[in-house]
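Annex B. Sample input.
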Amino acid sequence: MSTVSPDPSATGLKFWFVELAPGILPRNFGTMLYGAFTTIGLLAFVSIGTPYVLNVYLKIPQAEQGQIAGDLAAWNEIAMLLVFGPCGVLADRIGRKQVFTVGLIFMAIAYALYPFVSSVGELTAYRLLYAVGVGAATAMLQTILADYPANTSRGKATALVGTLNGLGVVILSVGLGGLMKTFVGRGYSPEDAGYMTHFIVAGLCLFSAAVIAAGLKKGTPVHKHEQLPLRELVRSGLAAARNPRIALAYASAFIARGDLVVVGTFVNLWGTGAGIEAGLDPADATAKGRMLFAITGIAGLFWLPLMGIMLDRVNRVTGTTICMTLAAAGFLAVNLVDHPLAPGAWIFFVFLGIGQISAFAGAATLIGQEAPIASRGAVVGMFNTFGAIGILFGTAVGGRLYDSIGPHAVFVMVGGLSLLVVCYGLWVRRTAPGPLAVRGNFMAH
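Annex B, continued. Sample output.
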């Protein structure tokens, strides 16, 4: 399989410490970073907007909201699972920025319609529209992350994008999530506060679509006469798995996305439940759960730059295997926690955050190197599809293990699966290691 290697004669451009691929301008890369910050932050607002809509507009009893929210999340993942592949194929045929822009427009329409629902069925329809938009936008973000950095800087670029993803979720979610309370405090009704907030979020989606349309590189990475036939392009995502390194990236994506949902869902749930058992009121217990989740997220954000540097200094299969080893260790170490709110338990959640973010960084860097340029959108689409399957697996199986065995079982399951990927990574390293990463100078001009 072809890989992208830097051509000093064709480029030499840099964005801060990231060397850019031939033909990529700093403004293209800067636009991608803007997309990394805003897209993930804006898509995260749905977790705030959905409970508000259920309570204020549909007036659903609290006892019924859990099932509705779970069903909406399931439909969301199914829709994304179905759109990742077609979006990747479209990106290889018509261009990345067109698909990215349309995805953000779909998100804007869904958010604008969200507070006007009159039934759960209508809410589900708008959530599906949102999911199509999110699938298109996030698939393109992953694809241009593979396109834009030179091979020497993939790890650092992945770390930079991952950091902006995290900051976007924190800053935009906190800022936008507080708007409804602010509007109510100024005398607006809860209904009007919801309308205005959702319109603002929709407007930000449209503004971001305009920025993406103006700033990303035009066209496709290959000339039209070099494009694969449509039928071959459609098949290329699965066919690419014949490359053991791409198969390793797919397996790592399954784990990395599953890791994300396990950390986001079950760390919160475990901490909250432990707080209630300790006699805290629900609000304080929920705050304790959020604190544990915050610890894992902050640890990951601080660790990510170091991981990015490492991934640019070693063979990418070696780097991914190291990342998956850290993920396995982080999740299995949680089995040593007797009580999540005990004074010394936080260190295990630091290791958990390091492991989770490492899995993401290793998988993203490896697929960026290995995805063939002519079918990169389709291959990255399949990579995202495996990630979506990992999310569905993590929520469905993890939830049942949590209820039937206990919180530890979820983390042991993910740690065990990560070990299987580590074993496969060791085999790939021995039999098909691929090229060594070119050592870049991180501190160079």
